[in-house]
Amino acid sequence: MTRVVGTNARRADGDDKVRGAAVYGMDYGQTGTLQAKLLRSPVPAGRIRRLDTARAAALPGVRAIITAADVPDTTSGWILKDQPMFAREEVRYIGEPIAAVAADTLAQAEAAVAAIELEIDPLEALTDMDAALAEGARLIHPAWESYQMLAPGPRSGNVAWESTLDRGDVDAAFAAAHLVVEDEFSTQRQHQSPIEPHAAVGRFEGGRYVVHSPAQFPFLVRDRLAEWLGIAPSKVRVVVTTIGGGFGGKIDAMLEPFVCVLARRTGRAVRLVNTRAEELQTAGPRENAKIRIRTAVSANGEILAQEADTIADNGAYSGEIVACAAVPGLVFGGTYRVPVARYRTRVVYTNTAPTAAFRGVNGPYAMFALEQHLDHIAAKLGMDRRELRLRNVVKAGEAIANGQVLDDAVFEEGFAKVEQIAPWAAQAPSGNPRGLRGKGIGAVTWLTNPGPGGATVKINEDGTAGVICAGAEIGTGAVAAGLRQIVAEELGLTPDDVIILAADTDAGTYDGGAQGSRTLFSLGNAAVQASAQVREQLLEVAANLLEANPADLELADGHVQVTGSPGAKVPLAAVAQTALYTAGPISATGRHITPPVQFDSGCLTGALFTGFATPTYHVHSAEVEVDPDTGKVTILRYVVAQDVGRAINPQQVEGQIHGGVLQGVGYALYEDLRVADGVTVDHSLENYRLPTAFEAPPIDIALLDNPWPDGPYGAKGAGEPSLIPVAAVIASAVSDAIGKPIRSLPITPFDVLAALREESESPAKGTTR
C-alpha cells in the first residue's frame, strides 16, 4: 500500500506559475543583455547573389552582425544532418535565417535587419509534395548523398527518408478476398502554438557557451550547437528555464546557435525571441500528409491483408519526422489484427518551413485514415462499426503486423469501459431538434518513448531530499509532481520535502528529453534505483544510532525507525548530519534505459521506431451534432479509456487527457496552418484558429489499471496518447451524422455544408467478389 504514489499531490511549480513569479525563457535576462533579430529569407527558393551588411553595421546601437561567413561550413541534424545554421549559398524556405544582428535595443536590431542589403535569384519552388516527387523535379538538396546520418536509412533525391513494413504475400491475400476497399485521405499542418514562443539567451564565459532556453530536450540542443559551431559538446551548457508550453515544438535547437555566436562576438549576453508571426512561419509544425490505404476482408469482416502508402511533408530540412517514418505503419498494423501487410512511408523535401515533432508524431493522421477506412469497410459489409472493430482488435498475447506480441493488451476492457459510460445505442441530450446526430469510436496502441535517463538523489542535512536530473518539466507535472512523489514514497518523506533542481546539462546525467510520454517513466525508474541505494546508506548509519540491525529498520514520516516500534526512531536530519563525519554525504545515482522491443526484424526497413516500447492501449468515442443550416459541429460527449499502467498522480494524468483531447479537437475541426506557394498564410493567433474553452467538450475518463512490471510503481507513459485518436473518432461521428465520408482535415463548417449539398456520394472504390 503506497502513501504518496497514487494521490493527487500538488505540483512544486504551481504557486509560482499561478502568481506570475515563474521566469519563462522569454522572460529570462540579465543586466546588459543585447537584443537580437534574424534576417530571414523572403522567398521559398533561390540563390543568394549579394549580401552586404556594411550599412546595417554602422547604425546606432548595433554591436555585431553575423552570417554564414562567420560560422563553420557544416550541417547538423538529429537523424539526418542536412541543415546549415545560416543559408550559405541557397535558401530553401521562406523564413530561413540568413543573418543575425545584436544591438542595444530590439528596435535598433530590427532597423539593422531592415538595412541589410540582400539580393536573391529565385529558383523554381517545389512547395508541395506532388511537385517534389514528380519525375524530373529539381533537387531541393543536390548534395543529399553527402549528408551524414545518425542511423542508415533509404533515401533518394527529394525523398528524405523512406520506411517500409512488408510481411506476407499481400498480392495473394488481396486476390482471394471477399471484399477490397480503397480510400485516400489528406491532412493539414498543425502548429503547436504554445503561449510562449521560442526564446534563448546566450553567454560566452570561461571558454564555454551557456544557453538559457525553454528546451524540451536540452542534451539534443547541446549536441546540435556543438555540431554547428564545430566544438565539443562539453563546451556547451544548456540550462532549462520554466517552459511556457512546447508540445514537441521545443525538442530541437532553433534560436540557440545564433545567441551563442553573437555572445562570443560581442562579449555580452544576447537574447533572441520569436514573434508570433515567426513562430507560425518557421517553428516546425506537425507535418501535412497524404495516405492511400486499401484492405482485403472476408465476408464476416475479418481483415485479411492491408497496404498503405503515406507521404509526409518534411519541409526543407529534416527534424523528427524522419525518425518517426515507421510510425504510420505501426499505427495501421498495431491495433487491429493484420496478418499480411505492406506499408510504405516517404518523407518528402519541399520548399516550405521544416516540419517537426508535435504530440503523437505521425500518429493522428494515420489513425484518422485508418478509422475512416474501417467505417467504409463496415458500410460495404453492412456491419455495425463498433462490431467490426471488436471483431478485429488485438487481444492479449497476439502479435501485430511487425511481429511484436502485445502481452498486456486491454482493448476489450477499454471498449467495455466506454460502453459502460456512453452506450453505443444511447444518445446524449441535445437542445437542437434539427441537429444531425452521429457517433464514432476507435482504438489505438501507442508507445512510451524509450531513451536513456538518469537521476541523482541526495539527502540534505535538514533531512529533505534533493533530486538532480536533466529532465525538463514541460508542464505535464511529470517532474514537478510525479517524480517528487516517487522519491517521497521511496524515502518516507512528503512530496514537499523533495527538492528538484532545474534541468541543466552540466548538473544532470544524460536524459532523452521531455517527449513521447517518457519523462516520468524513465526518470521515475532511475529515481527508484537511486533511492534504493540512498535508503541502504541511511539505514546503515541509523543502525549505529539506534543500536539495531539495518534489516529491522524502515523509513517513515521523515525518520528512520525500528519496524514495529515507532517510538524507537531518529530524524533523517540527524542521520544525514551523522553521515557527514562517519560514512560521508548520502547520495546515489540511478540510470534507466528501456529494453529493445522484440519484433520480426526481417519485415522492416528504414525504421528507427521498430515497435511499441512499453505499449499503452486506448479507446475513444465521440458523439456529435451537426447543424444542417450552418455546418457547425458540436461535440456532445467525449469518452476516453486510457491505459496508463498505474497513475502516479491521477489528477495530473486526467489533466493531460483533457489537454490532449482539446488539441485533438483543434486538429479535427479548426486548426490548419495554411501554406500557399511557400508562404505561410496564418501569421497570428487571430487567423490561426485554436479551440478555446468554449469548444471543450464534456469529457468522461476511465483510467485503465494495467501496471507495467518494468515501470516505476507500474506506471507507463501518459502525456501524449490522448491526442492521437481524437480527430479519427470525431471524423467518424461527423461522417455518421451527415451520411457522407470525411476524406480530409480539418472538418470546417464549409466542408460539412458542401458535403450535405452533394446530390450523391462520390462512387465508392469498394469492390465485392
TrEMBL record:
Annotated InterPro entries: Ald_Oxase/Xan_DH_a/b (IPR000674), Ald_Oxase/Xan_DH_a/b_sf (IPR036856), Ald_Oxase/xanthine_DH-like (IPR016208), AldOxase/xan_DH_MoCoBD1 (IPR008274), AldOxase/xan_DH_MoCoBD2 (IPR046867), AldOxase/xan_DH_Mopterin-bd_sf (IPR037165)
Domain Aldehyde oxidase/xanthine dehydrogenase a/b hammerhead: 19-124
Pfam families, per the entry: Ald_Xan_dh_C, MoCoBD_1, MoCoBD_2
Protein name as annotated: Xanthine dehydrogenase family protein
Organism this protein belongs to: Pseudonocardia acidicola
